[in-house]
Write a structure and sequence with these properties.
This protein is of the alpha/beta class. The protein has 3 domains: about 190 residues, 3-Layer(aba) Sandwich (Rossmann fold); about 190 residues, HUPs (Rossmann fold, 3-Layer(aba) Sandwich), CATH 3.40.50; about 100 residues, GMP Synthetase, Chain A, domain 3 (2-Layer Sandwich). About 30% of the residues lie in helices and about 25% in strands. It contains 14 helices and 19 strands. The strands form 3 sheets. The chain has a 9-stranded mixed sheet with strand order 3-2-4-5-10-9-8-6-7, with helices on both faces. Strands 1-15-14-11-12-13 form a 6-stranded parallel sheet, with helices on both faces. Strands 16, 17, 18 and 19 form a 4-stranded mixed sheet that branches. α5 packs across α6 and α8 packs antiparallel against α9. The protein starts with 8 loop residues before the first strand and ends in a 13-residue tail after the last strand.
């Protein structure tokens, strides 16, 4: 039954205030890479937490951070109302690294000048290192390809900063204070496209900050299980057959045992064979109590006539809640609704706690209604996909489950451009199955992050036999990534692409053309909607 309260959300892990001691505080200025900075720091074995950009220096000191990183962001440091930081953070009491907007904010706070650049820099850019010390200690090359994403640039450095790197369009691509404890970079070292970016972050975190190595996923599993075991009441967990919900269910199963009930909803928007996979793995494999609900007709009715992608996502989220509320009413009571929400879902839905823009609403984040009767617990919402896979390995989940490519929560609704129809769903489902099969057969499954196909309303002309034929054009997308925050299109062998195209046009009724997407993230997103 629905109440009149907004659903409470919990991470499912213990408070982390003390764990930040000796770690890195990342101040969130709304950049889409803010959480990615945390991920990069954690991969060094150092705990990092995303914090509000206006947190006080006193609070940071009380939490015992070893260093602070200022994230990028969409604002201009010279604009009225732009997000700022406590100026006492820049006094060098703890080391500070400013990235992009964070660097520009640092420059203006110390008396320098930032202006709109005469030429914007987006994407790859070559920087020249002027001194190999501090952030650039031990790097192999004096010129590096880095990822830029900015409209503004520092044009005058304050006296307290000296330039230590430059690019064609950014003469002050990096700068530091005399003691090296205050550093700024115009590029994004946290993005995988930046050569030796992780080495730069390691130099700051481990050398400059001397941060404590206090983070590992084994410890995360123990703490999360302990926290979940303290939940009162029964837990209803949504499972889809994907990695995220499977790991979430396994964590809960270990923590609360018989108080867990899992429910699999057939939305009509899923990959082929998902229900069978869930029955085999969670039901028979782990012995988890799973109920199966066929709600495909209800979802397709709700989506009829809808073409806007954000509206589709919210409809799927609301319908999920409707189905779960009804299931809970019949089989409850349940105090908690558990979901496999990840960091990227939270970030792109604008729920990161900073001034980030909404990229796309994920059905399990922004799609849930405010009057949901259950409290929401998200045990893995602090983790990225690769971290979740490692947690799954620690829990003993089989590789065939952990190696599955990501699948969007709203399912094929976001791989069908325009109105969702049964015919377009069939085309997207069958085409994606072929793409996955060919990629797997070529031994590339573990080499790529995701491989699928999507379809819209566009019809193109083809020839069948000697007759003109009008049919769908399917777009194939195969990307490489490590965390889903950035991605690049996979340079597949032409023979693999030929096999995909031939099979789709021969085996999927109504398709006469196949295209290949070569858009990276950014500027595109991985899923088309």
């Amino acid at each position: 039954m629905r109440g009149d309260r907004k659903p409470a959300r919990g991470r499912g892990a213990e408070g982390v205030r003390d764990r930040l001691r000796g770690g890195i505080g990342v101040l969130d200025f709304g950049g889409q890479y803010a959480h990615l900075i945390c991920r990069r720091v954690r991969s060094l074995g150092v705990y990092a937490e995303l914090l509000p950009h206006d947190i006080s220096a006193v609070e940071l000191e009380s939490r015992g951070v070893a260093g602070v990183i200022l994230s990028g962001g969409p604002a201009s440091a010279y604009s009225k109302g732009a997000p700022t930081a406590d100026p006492r953070i820049f006094d060098g009491a703890v080391p500070v690294l400013g990235i992009c907007y964070g660097y520009q904010l640092l420059v203006t706070a110390k008396g320098g000048e930032v202006r709109k650049a005469s030429r914007r820099e987006y994407g790859r850019s070559t920087i020249r290192i002027l001194e190999r010390k501090g952030l650039f200690e031990g790097l192999h090359e004096s010129k590096l390809e880095c990822w830029m994403s900015h409209t503004d640039s520092p044009v005058v450095l304050p006296p307290s900063l000296k330039p230590v790197a430059s690019s064609v369009n950014s003469p002050f691509a990096a700068a530091r204070s005399a003691d090296g404890r205050v550093i700024g970079v115009q590029f994004h070292p946290e993005v995988t496209h930046t050569e030796e970016g992780q080495a730069m972050i390691a130099n700051f975190v481990l050398r400059t900050c001397n941060a404590a190595k206090n983070w590992d996923l084994g410890g995360f599993v123990k703490r999360t299980e302990a926290s979940l075991s303290s939940l009162h009441g029964r837990v209803l967990c949504a499972v889809s057959g994907g990695v995220d919900s499977s790991v979430t269910a396994a964590l809960l199963h270990r923590a609360v045992g018989g108080r867990l009930k899992c429910a699999f909803i057939d939305t009509g928007l899923l990959r082929a064979g998902e229900a069978g996979n869930v029955k085999e793995f969670l039901g028979r494999g782990l012995g988890i109590d799973v109920s199966f609900l066929d709600a495909s007709d209800a979802f397709l009715r709700a989506l009829k006539g809808v073409t806007d992608s954000e509206t589709k996502r919210r409809i799927v989220g609301r319908k999920f809640a409707d189905v779960f509320e009804e299931f809970a009413r019949r089989n409850g009571p349940f105090e908690w609704l558990a979901q496999g929400t990840l960091y990227p879902d939270v970030i792109e839905s604008g729920r990161s706690g900073g001034p980030a823009a909404v990229i796309k609403t994920h059905h399990n984040v922004g799609g849930l209604p405010d009057d949901l009767s259950m409290k929401v617990v998200e045990p893995v919402s602090d983790l990225y996909k690769d971290e979740v896979r490692e947690v799954g390995r620690l829990l003993g989940l089989p590789e065939r489950v952990l190696r599955r490519h990501p699948f969007p929560g709203p399912g094929l609704a976001v791989r069908v451009i325009g109105e969702v129809t049964e015919d377009k769903l069939r085309v997207a489902r069958e085409s994606s199955t072929i793409v996955e099969d060919v990629v797997d057969g070529a031994g590339l499954h573990d080499e790529v992050w995701q491989a699928f196909a999507f379809v819209g309303d566009d019809k193109v002309t083809g020839v069948l036999g000697d007759e003109r034929r009008l049919g769908y054009q399917v777009t194939v997308k195969v990307v490489q990534s490590t965390d889903a925050m950035t991605a690049d299109w996979a340079r597949l062998d032409p023979r693999v692409l030929d096999s995909i195209s031939t099979r789709i046009t021969n085996e999927v009724e109504g398709v006469v053309g196949v295209a290949y997407s070569i858009s990276s993230k950014p500027p595109a997103t991985i899923e088309p909607q």
